[in-house]
Specification:
The structure holds two protein chains of two kinds.
Chain A (H helix, E strand, L loop, with lengths): L1 H19 L4 H22 L23 H32 L14
Chain B lengths: L1 H15 L6 H29 L2 E4 L10 E4 L1 H24 L2 H24 L3 H20 L4 H32 L4 H10 L8 H14 L8 H5 L5 H25 L5 H24 L4 H22 L2 H32 L10 H4 L1 H15 L5 H15 L3 H27 L15 H19 L1 H15 L2 H9 L5
Antiparallel strand pairs in B: 1-2
The chains are: A mainly alpha, B mainly alpha.
């Protein structure tokens, strides 16, 4: 289980980096989203993945037979919420940039570059 | 409890300022908030100078299980300087920012940055540090692109994407570290790593990832490219805020992480710090000499000056650490001070291109002084604060037998002086090449007040150099005794 998730994370990172290196801003932004989810999965994996494992104790206060570490799940939840906020913001920024410049091309960003 | 105040105060301001209060109430509300923040910071530093450390456990959940906020002497000093910069900038922004931006939320996001920076300085565990980074970054993303045209939006996209990548490095490092240690509390991590006699090689990946994340945030070589590509695009008050606070949070985190965790692996890390610091200093200062834009020169100097701090971290002696802390504080004040003058020039003349400016000295004596003081302080001229900081770092470098590195630091200082004199000659001294009409009319008394506050602070820090350096030495002693920090946070017993 853990191995397959690890391989999956690797594939996600590869896709994310590939998208980041594209010239179109939209693809770069999609790359950022993919990387963000790959990173969330790393935290999720860090706590150890247990099939059917639950992250809480039962009503008598005893841990269940198959128990998962609840902390990474809480951390991932925080990271997902932050990621969502950033995703919304970055899309608005892209939209505004497109309205002002009429281009998707990263090479057009050159004019703010230091000479 | 005093620590929560640093979070609650800006948060309260953000909430209250969403009510329809009118611009004036919002402006002076921001000034009142930053002054209260300053008083709180003075109270904290007075308390900490006698007791050493303060912690606050959220919801009374004990560390390492709950969220803990810790402030030691280093945090308290940086909180005080942040509060000082906040006060100066909130006064300055009233006349510097255009009304439209002020009406559409400048002050809310200003308070957001203040909250994120304060939170980062007192975060007691890595994940909280990440969350405070994000609070700070979200506000900075918005301020960076706020009301901008083509150039500003282009700068924002680069700033945003590179900072997001650094966040991913950080979170991935946090995940891997948690997987191996089962904790994210900095004190607990430090104890676990100290108890492991030999650090397993599987720790290298998370440590490197987190160090890279801090290096990107701190704009160190070779990760600094986002900074000069974006810092000259937003309004000057925003650049001044970013220059004073954002990169310094990255450097603070690096100091904290180095003294608590990387020190147990210091065979490599000290050399890494020396190289990264040295190269940042040299490359930053060299690239600055070829620039002809006021703010671009200063942006490249940020890279050079954070390099000093990291270089001193690499010397890894108590004296060097004390010098690094002093220099970090000095740099936050002086750097923001010169950016404030850049903001005034921009408002007066509508451009920051050195070739089109001139002759400002003859009509604006006060502003010229406001530039000269922090600029000479950055270059390291006595009796200003930069001299004390550079002296402490270079002397400790020679004492620690890193003579070459110390000589490079001296050499870089000469180039800093060159760049500052270049700005002085081009902007204030030479005859005006072409007549330029003032861009925006309006008062500038409050702008001058803000700049004067910082100029006085840099003089004060230089004149009172000895007692402040003593305080920094105590802070360095705390940092070099991580067990003190660990025992204070976790209690004496084993967890």
């Amino acid at each position: 289980m853990e191995l397959s998730i690890a391989i999956f994370i690797g594939i996600l990172y590869a896709c994310g980096v590939f998208l980041l290196l594209r010239r179109s801003i939209v693809k770069v932004i999609l790359g950022v989203f993919v990387l963000s989810n790959a990173t969330n999965l790393i935290i999720f994996l860090a706590g150890g993945v247990e099939r059917g494992g639950i992250g809480f104790v039962n009503e008598n206060g005893e841990p269940a037979a198959a128990m998962s570490d609840p902390l990474p799940q809480a951390l991932v939840l925080t990271a997902i919420v932050i990621g969502l906020g950033i995703a919304a913001y970055i899309l608005v920024l892209k939209y505004q940039y497109f309205k002002v410049t009429g281009t998707h091309d990263l090479d057009q960003l050159k004019n703010t570059e230091q000479k | 409890m005093i620590l929560s105040g640093f979070i609650i105060l800006p948060l309260l301001y953000i909430v209250v300022s969403f009510f329809p209060l009118g611009l004036r109430a919002r402006q002076w509300g921001a000034v009142a908030m930053t002054v209260m923040n300053l008083l709180l910071a003075v109270g904290l530093i007075a308390h900490i100078a006698s007791t050493g450390m303060v912690k606050s456990e959220m919801g009374s959940w004990q560390a390492p299980y709950g969220i803990v906020m810790v402030a030691d002497r280093l945090s308290a000093l940086l909180l005080l300087i942040t509060a000082l910069l906040g006060t100066a900038l909130s006064v300055y922004a009233i006349q510097s920012m255009d009304t439209e931006r002020q009406e559409k939320g400048f002050y809310q996001f200003f308070a957001g940055i203040l909250m994120g920076v304060n939170g980062s300085f007192i975060a007691g565990d890595l994940f909280n540090l990440y969350v405070w980074f994000e609070v700070m970054l979200m506000s900075s993303f918005i301020l960076m692109s706020h009301g901008g045209g083509k150039v500003q939006l282009g700068g924002s996209i680069k700033y945003l994407i590179l900072n997001l990548i650094s966040s991913f490095f950080f979170v991935a490092g946090i995940g891997l570290l948690y997987g191996q240690t089962g904790t994210l509390n900095l004190a607990h991590l430090s104890r676990i790593i100290a108890e492991a006699a030999v650090l397993p090689s599987s720790f290298n990946a998370p440590l490197v990832l987190i160090a890279i994340a801090f290096a990107i945030k701190g704009a160190l070589f070779p990760f600094f490219f986002w900074l000069p590509a974006s810092y000259h695009t937003p309004p000057p008050a925003v650049t001044a805020l970013f220059a004073g606070l954002l990169t310094k949070v990255g450097i603070y985190s690096l100091i904290r992480f180095h003294t608590l965790i990387l020190r147990y692996d210091d065979a490599i890390w000290n050399d890494v710090m020396l190289w990264i610091g040295g190269l940042s200093m040299v490359i930053g200062v060299f690239t600055a000499t070829s620039q002809y834009d006021f703010r671009k020169i200063l942006s490249f100097h940020i890279i050079s000056q954070v390099g000093y701090v990291v270089l001193a971290l690499g010397f890894s002696t108590r004296a060097a650490m004390a010098g690094a802390i002093f220099f970090l504080g000095h740099n936050m004040i002086a750097k923001t001070g010169v950016f404030l003058v850049a903001g005034w020039v921009k408002k007066r003349k509508g451009t920051l291109d050195l070739r089109r400016l001139g002759e400002l000295f003859s009509r604006n004596k006060w502003w010229s002084v406001m530039f000269l003081i922090p600029a000479f302080s950055l270059a390291g001229i006595p009796p200003l604060s930069g001299f004390v900081g550079k002296y402490a770092i270079i002397k400790s470098g020679i004492d620690a037998h890193h003579t070459t590195a110390a000589l490079i630091a001296l050499f870089v200082g000469v180039f800093t002086l060159f760049s500052m004199l270049k700005i002085w000659i081009e902007v204030f001294w030479k005859p005006m090449p072409t007549a330029i009409e003032p861009a925006i009319k309006g008062g500038e008394g409050l702008m001058l007040t803000g700049a004067a506050l910082l100029a006085l602070a840099t003089i004060g820090m230089g004149v009172a150099g000895a007692p402040i350096l003593d305080y920094c030495t105590e802070a360095a002693n705390d940092l070099f005794n991580p067990n003190g920090y660990v025992e204070f946070v976790l209690g004496r017993g084993g967890v």
